[in-house]
# Entry
Amino acid sequence: MKPILFNIQKFCLHDGPGIRTTVFFKGCPLRCAWCANPESQLSFPQITYHDKNCHQCGLCVSVCPNKALSLIHDKIVIDHQKCKHCLLCANACPFNAIQIEGYTMDIEEILNEILKDADFYKESNGGVTFSGGEVLSQVQAAIELADKLHEHNIHVAIETTGYSSKETFCKLLNHIDLLLFDFKHPNSEKHKKGTGVSNQLILENLALAKEHEKKIIIRMPIIPNYNDSLEDAKHTAQIFHKLDIKDIELLPFHQFGENKYQFLQKEYAYPNNVQLTKKDLQHLIEYYESEGFNVKCS
Ligand code: SF4
Ligand code: SF4
# Structure
């Protein structure tokens, strides 16, 4: 079982305790409008176009078997309806203007890469976090890797949307130490509007994780005019009180992923929104703290 990844990032300080390596699995069933990693969404390798490298030689256009590329006004335009992700254009481009996002790696190769930093995990009480995309979409590979990491006494966390069948979710739960559980909106309709899916399954899986007595930290991206009101916070707090959730982390909206939308030639939904800071979320921090939650925000 070779997982498909889009990154392995070392020395991460915000994906769980201590110093960690974060393994980013490619493929996600959600389509969050604000997604900072849009290259993570498809579950297979795909192309990105970098116009600064492009010499307008037209080679990519000529090799594409599906006529998915056109050279228009000195730039390559991708027809996403026609592209079948064969990657021939990226392999043909002499200037690295078409690049490939996503690659497969053996579990042993990933493990060897992770083990290079074993001393740092030990010294900092850190470990490894599986993120994405959505790691639950590659559950067998995740289980295999988690078990191998545990053989080396390395702590394993997952950062997850919680969106999968209960069977899949339970399978992975038994192989990990910590859940960084994303939560986007307490209202199911609004959740669907922002992410493409209802929150029902997500809430059911969150309840399951509690039943399994897993350590859970909720992570909430706070998105302008989507889930930043006190009303949303009150609804969210009710849900978490019922589930006896204590630890939450608020993640202020940012636009770090914007250039990736350009490379993918996809429309970005938040081009004119200002990045939020901890100060902007003070009303929410104070509210959640007044409700007895342990709140982290950076
Ligand atoms: S990935 Fe394949 S189908 Fe898609 S544009 Fe490139 S050559 Fe054409
Ligand atoms: S092959 Fe590369 S350099 Fe040539 S037109 Fe295509 S993207 Fe640009």
